[in-house]
Amino acid sequence: MRQAIYIFQKEFKTYFVSPIAYIVIAIFLLVTGWFFFATFFLFDQASLRNFFSLLPVIFSFVIPAITMRLVSEELNMGSYEILLTMPVTFNDVILGKFLAAVTFVAAMLIPTFAYSVTVASLGQIDWGPVIGGYIGAILLGAAFSAIGLFASALTRNQIIAFITAMAICFFLTLIDKMLFFLPQSLLGILAYLGADFHFQNISKGIIDSRDVIYFLSVCFISLFAAHLALQEKH
Amino acid sequence: MIQVKNLTKYYSNLCAVDQISLDIQQREILGLLGPNGAGKTTTLRMLTGFLQPTAGSIHVKDYSIDEHPLEIKKILGYLPESAPLYHDMLVFDYLNYVADIRGIENDRKLKRIRKLADLCGINEVMHQPIDELSKGYKQRVGLAHAMMNDPEILILDEPTSGLDPNQIVEIREIIKQIGKEKTIILSTHILSEAEATCDRVVIINRGKIVADGSTESLKESAVDKKNIHLSLQNSNFKSVESVMSAINGITGVTRVEETDGQLDVRLRCESSVDPRAAIYENIKQTDWVLLDFHQKTQTLETIFRELTRESA
């Protein structure tokens, strides 16, 4: 476990050594800020609902960009060999890298508190959905980070890792909006698979255990798949 | 110290390592020699636990690599080929990270990093990013990384590949110095390196061990195949062959080259007989002009070439 913490620290610092972190955060803030405030005054409501409704789609391409290098870069450079010949387990490697990605997502969300403060200064804001929204955003970020880590463990090419993760995240985000194409009998199951469906529930301020379990399940399955992918290379 | 039994590794249908067995003693510097693609790196990767063998077993001290991989990794330091380090980290940060992962306590960490920096000669680059270092310095940082936990066993994969002659000598000196206290296994295809640094040499070809012993014993065993080289003028191969074949102890005559009236021949001799005097007497009775006459001593290079060519 101590090794996982050292790997987490190293990975988290690495984000901020290169300009990637700053570029990703800047793009994320620009895109969310633009789309949120472009329609904010039209609705004349002091709520962050529009901001949170955008998050699954924006996370679908921002988080794969954050996670694409996690394992692919190591496989490509060969440093993976050095890492795995030190006294660490696959679990340490996966957990450390996953926590680094999730913490980075959380760090990326911190500047958006400014949106809540701005909205609160303009009207009476209901803090329940805001807090729920941020909890949901972390859960969603964790699930997409796990998917990104899995995609990164599959290949040494970061572009392929990015596209694979983005495709899976988009699929989970959009599946509950495509239901009209599908037979009636499958609707319940497929709607339940949708990440956006669960995220929108939480962002209303209702923390339902089913939604939490959904995100934790996605995390677990993806991390387990990443574990298998690494073990296969062993 | 290390027991390897029938170690085998297949990549799909390709057999990279074929039933290798080795017994490596404490404080031995073992050189793993072989042409490119012989299976050296695969063998080392299995020894470090990075790759799982298809068959066979590895025991380090009393630990089996299948059951106690972490315990083995704790007593082992490994430098992969071309030292693939984290290029975006500073040298000090990198060594600090390795010390953390290796579980070195905070109060000992700085002292250990300083000691390794002195030993590997990296004091002046401690605060430089790794990707700005020359290949020689990267290799030294890799060595410092491998020795961070003061391992009992050090495994080095082609530690001098791509270095200039001065850097090669420096790295060899470091290896020799460390080898006084540690067991070192190094792979190389540079024969002079094995000759200069190793107590024992194992030659691998196509995944199999084709020779195992000290450089001296390998050379001694190869003396059985003694060769004598002659350069003659005013002669032809047919007459040389008939005269030389008649001498006791010569088992074969081969034409090496024939240009501008000069004939170079190689005489293969039995090890038990020294035919040099008889050769000289026979040449004296002809009108040939003797330009060169020497017995070819076997170097590790000729042994290596013979062994790896024979098995190919």
Task: Describe the SSE topology.
The complex is a heterodimer of chains A (234) and B (312).
Chain A: H1 2-17, H2 20-43, H3 49-67, H4 69-77, H5 79-84, H6 90-109, H7 113-122, H8 127-154, H9 158-174, H10 187-193, H11 195-203, H12 209-233
Chain B: E1 2-11, E2 14-24, E3 29-33, H1 40-48, E4 55-60, E5 63-64, H2 69-74, E6 76-79, H3 91-101, H4 106-120, H5 135-146, E7 153-157, H6 165-179, E8 183-188, H7 191-197, E9 200-205, E10 208-213, H8 215-222, E11 226-233, H9 237-245, E12 250-259, E13 262-269, H10 276-284, E14 289-296, H11 300-311
Parallel strand pairs in B: 3-8, 3-9, 6-7, 7-8
Antiparallel strand pairs in B: 1-2, 1-4, 4-5, 9-10, 11-13, 11-14, 12-13
Give an overview in words.
The complex is a heterodimer of chains A (234) and B (312). Chain A is mostly helical and 234 residues long. Chain A has one domain (2-233). In chain A, 81% of the residues lie in helices and 0% in strands. Chain A contains twelve helices and no strands. Chain B has 312 residues and is α/β, with parallel strands linked by helices. Chain B has two domains: 2-220, Rossmann fold, CATH 3.40.50.300; 224-297, Alpha-Beta Plaits (2-Layer Sandwich), CATH 3.30.70.3190. Helices cover 36% and strands 30% of the residues of chain B. Chain B has a six-stranded mixed beta sheet with strand order 6-7-8-3-9-10, sandwiched between helices. A four-stranded antiparallel beta sheet of chain B has the order 2-1-4-5. Chain B has a four-stranded antiparallel beta sheet with strand order 12-13-11-14, with helices on one face. In chain B, strand 7, helix 6 and strand 8 form a beta-alpha-beta unit. In chain B, helix 3 (91-101) packs across helix 4 and helix 4 crosses helix 5 (135-146). Chain B is elongated, with a radius of gyration of 25 Å. The mean pLDDT of chain B is 84. The chains are: A mainly alpha (234), B alpha/beta (312). The A-B interface holds A 2-3, 6-7, 10, 14, 17-18, 77-79, 81-82, 84-89, 234 and B 45, 48-52, 70, 73-74, 76, 78, 80, 82, 84-89, 97-98, 100-103, 145.
